[in-house]
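TASK: fixed-backbone design
INPUT:
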């Protein structure tokens, strides 16, 4: 009976049931967290101070600041959190000696927490749809019913893991960090790229994500490669990139036309130096090394070097899968034919997540809220490198051991981000987990790049 149930529940008609059950659990858990776990102030007051300064007419980014220091986020952040401020204060007493219109009162914060609960569930839904799109593709490429059933349950476990992070729940519904809405938009853009084949609209949403926090640019190398492969034309790729740039110009216009240098330097502060006390990933290093310029240059060189190695790996895979002539079409100025290219969902998702992950591994520092930059990619990258279409679902060494190792790797990262303050041990555990996944990405096959034309009909 149990074997029959195991196989029956793995059928496609139960995929959306699984997603709905996970989302219901997420909504209930997030509600319970808001009601039972006290809110702890970290950045919300500073956000409201920065937003209020902007709303009072200040356009010089140097002068827009809060208790945590000067504003270091692009203009989209001000517009979004200004909207949050309006929501929070619409139905409460706005008399406030601090001049923030009551936006930092406990009543206002509770209203915004409920907004973030909704945003969290929306983000979970988008992420689960990305996983489900990959699951459907894996189904199409399995050979036997037995291996398909095992593969389905492995991927459902991965989907469940995306709903279990204590730290990510905290980032969204208890801390209200701007990392959360930035990643929601990023995941929506990935859904548009991977599942809807909507690249222009996806670029709009991607750029909106960048306008809230520039960490989204870590996904840009992967997106650039995908645009080149999708368009098979430099001119069309430039057109898509101009969409991204136009959004930034439009949102930053009030600042670019008044104090442009100030805006560019602060909103996209690439040389920002972080405090050693908040680092999660390098706590086993002496502080003098952590803050040194040579260490920063070493990490940058490693970042660029690994990206280059992955680019070569992706290029060789393109030649292998598409042929040398087709692979080289992406470097032509204009498209040589009207054939439509549909990149596979797993390839789009894998490429963007891998691009971001390399930046995470060699980041100069990771703060606790940065975890949501890549938590949702961990099961995806681990499972795609372990349970792809070529893997067998019937052997202990091909299923149970990789599954256990993958769960342990995610648990190691989760452990590190839940130790406060970070210790040498927690940072070492994080780096071991990072190295494990990076090696898997470097050594595994690249997913199928293109969907067969027959399957597009």
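OUTPUT:
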């Amino acid at each position: 009976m149990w074997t029959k149930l195991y196989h029956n529940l793995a059928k496609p008609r139960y995929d959306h049931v699984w997603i709905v059950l996970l989302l219901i659990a997420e909504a209930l858990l997030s509600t319970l967290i808001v009601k039972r776990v006290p809110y702890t102030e970290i950045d919300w007051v500073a956000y409201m101070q920065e937003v209020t300064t902007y709303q009072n007419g200040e356009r010089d980014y140097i002068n827009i600041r809060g208790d945590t220091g000067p504003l270091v986020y692009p203009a989209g952040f001000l517009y979004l959190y200004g909207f949050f401020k309006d929501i929070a204060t619409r139905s409460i007493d706005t008399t406030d000696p601090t001049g923030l219109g009551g936006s930092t009162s406990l009543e206002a914060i509770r209203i915004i927490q409920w907004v973030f609960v909704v945003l969290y569930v929306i983000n979970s839904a988008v992420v689960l749809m990305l996983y489900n799109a990959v699951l459907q593709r894996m189904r199409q490429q399995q050979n036997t019913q037995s291996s398909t059933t095992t593969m389905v349950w492995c991927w459902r476990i991965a989907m469940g893991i995306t709903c279990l992070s204590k730290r990510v729940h905290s980032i969204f519904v208890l801390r209200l960090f701007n990392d959360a809405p930035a990643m929601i938009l990023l995941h929506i853009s990935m859904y548009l790229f991977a599942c809807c084949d909507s690249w222009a609209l996806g670029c709009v949403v991607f750029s909106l994500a960048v306008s809230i926090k520039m960490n989204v640019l870590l996904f840009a190398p992967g997106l650039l490669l995908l645009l080149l492969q999708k368009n098979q034309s430099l001119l069309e790729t430039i057109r898509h990139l101009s969409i991204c740039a136009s959004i930034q110009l439009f949102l930053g216009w009030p600042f670019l036309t008044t104090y442009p240098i100030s805006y560019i330097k602060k909103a996209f502060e690439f040389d920002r130096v972080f405090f050693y006390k908040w680092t999660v990933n390098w706590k086993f290093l002496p502080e003098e090394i952590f803050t040194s310029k040579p260490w920063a240059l070493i990490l940058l060189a490693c970042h660029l070097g690994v990206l280059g190695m992955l680019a070569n790996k992706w290029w060789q895979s393109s030649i292998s899968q598409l042929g040398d002539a087709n692979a080289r079409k992406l470097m032509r100025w204009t498209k040589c034919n009207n054939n439509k290219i549909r990149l596979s969902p797993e390839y789009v998702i894998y490429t963007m997540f891998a691009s971001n992950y390399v930046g995470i591994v060699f980041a100069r520092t990771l703060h606790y809220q940065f975890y949501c930059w890549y938590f949702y990619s961990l099961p995806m990258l681990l499972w795609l490198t372990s349970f792809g279409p070529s893997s067998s679902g019937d052997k202990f060494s091909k299923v149970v051991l990789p599954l256990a190792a993958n769960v342990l790797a995610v648990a190691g990262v989760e452990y590190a981000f839940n130790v406060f303050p970070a210790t040498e041990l927690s940072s070492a555990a994080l780096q071991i987990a990072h190295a494990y996944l990076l090696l898997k990405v470097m050594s595994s096959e690249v997913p199928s790049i293109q969907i067969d034309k027959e399957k597009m009909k």
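COMMENT: Residues 106-141 form the longest helix (36 residues).
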